[in-house]
Write a structure and sequence with these properties.
The complex is a heterodimer of chains A (93) and B (181). Chain A contains three helices and six strands; from the N terminus they run E-H-E-H-E-E-E-E-H. Chain A has 93 residues and is an alpha+beta fold. In chain A, the strands form three sheets. Chain A has a two-stranded parallel sheet. Chain B has 181 residues and is mostly helical. In chain B, 56% of the residues lie in helices and 7% in strands. In chain B, helix 3 runs antiparallel to helix 5 (70-90), helix 3 runs parallel beside helix 6 and helix 5 runs antiparallel to helix 6. The termini of chain B are far apart. Classes of the chains: A alpha+beta (93), B mainly alpha (181). The interface between A and B is large, with 65 and 52 residues.
């Protein structure tokens, strides 16, 4: 399974984050929040100085690109747990 | 010699600077002997502040203490107990007005921190869009092209099919996050 992180941050911000935190997975930037909006995940004006950002959400896609599992948290502190995601990922096989 | 309190309240001595100074010294003496440093009130207030800031910095890192802030609530209960003891101590008969006001202010501030925590975690953090039109299970994930950290554009279709160690990935996990804000 390939994890991909997506935010409204600029590539440079994500670059710094990846370097500092030592992340090697794919991090994508959506500064205009186009994809975020297309996925209906826009949290308007919730960012610093009122920028549009994404609400937290996780989607698990199978090999054909079909969505197999979705997690739309109700509280931004609470995200999907690793074991939750791994058990869903195992079900893909 | 006349007691400073009497001197200060006497018509002639009331506004005389030297008498005011004596009055203050007498007042300080009373504060020192009756209440001194209110340890429980201070500890309660500081614990309340710690109970708040430990959530983002410590307990939000672990799912067990993140999904429901048990640890922070226990800390707040401890802080509340200490603040109660501190305020009660200041309100003993020998406590000064100054000590009572001070303990009450610490108590109110500690309580305000706890109330703000409840708002921040249980109310503000839940103010998220409903996302009713977000893609659902069974849908084809809408394709997109986004920049990676080097500014190179990549399509979801490529992400899905680009091999990992020579094999096509069994799946892709899209994680949308808030980013630096």
């Amino acid at each position: 399974m390939r994890p991909v992180a997506i935010s409204a941050d600029a590539p440079q911000t994500s670059h710094d984050l990846a370097r500092k935190a030592g992340y090697s997975f794919l991090i994508l930037s959506d500064p205009q929040a186009e994809t975020i909006r297309h996925y209906d995940l826009l949290h308007a004006k919730a960012g610093v100085s009122g920028a549009d950002i994404a609400r937290p959400a996780e989607f698990l896609l199978d090999g054909n690109g079909t969505i197999r599992w979705v997690n739309l948290t109700e509280n931004y502190w609470v995200r999907a747990r690793v074991e939750q995601i791994l058990s869903q990922a195992k079900a893909l096989r | 010699m006349l007691h400073p309190l009497l001197l200060a309240s006497s018509p002639q001595g009331k506004y005389h600077p030297s008498n005011l100074a004596l009055y203050e010294i007498a007042g300080m003496g009373a504060t020192m002997s009756a209440s001194k440093f209110n340890g429980p009130a201070w500890a309660g207030f500081l614990l309340s502040v710690f109970a708040f800031i430990s959530y983002p910095f410590i307990f939000a890192r672990f799912p067990l203490t993140r999904d429901f802030p048990w640890a922070n609530i226990i800390l707040f209960v401890g802080a509340g107990t200490l603040l109660f003891l501190g305020v009660r101590r200041a309100f003993r008969p020998e406590g000064t007005v100054r000590a009572r006001i001070f303990a009450s202010v610490l108590g109110a501030a500690g309580l305000a921190v706890a109330v703000f925590f409840v708002f921040a975690i249980f109310i503000f953090a839940r103010e998220l869009p409903a996302s009713v039109h977000a893609p659902r299970v069974g849908d084809q994930a809408p394709d997109f092209a986004l920049s990676d950290v080097n500014g190179k554009s990549i399509y979801l279709a490529e992400i899905r099919t680009a091999p990992i160690q020579g094999k096509t990935p069994k799946g892709v996990l899209l994680i949308f996050y808030r980013g630096y804000w």
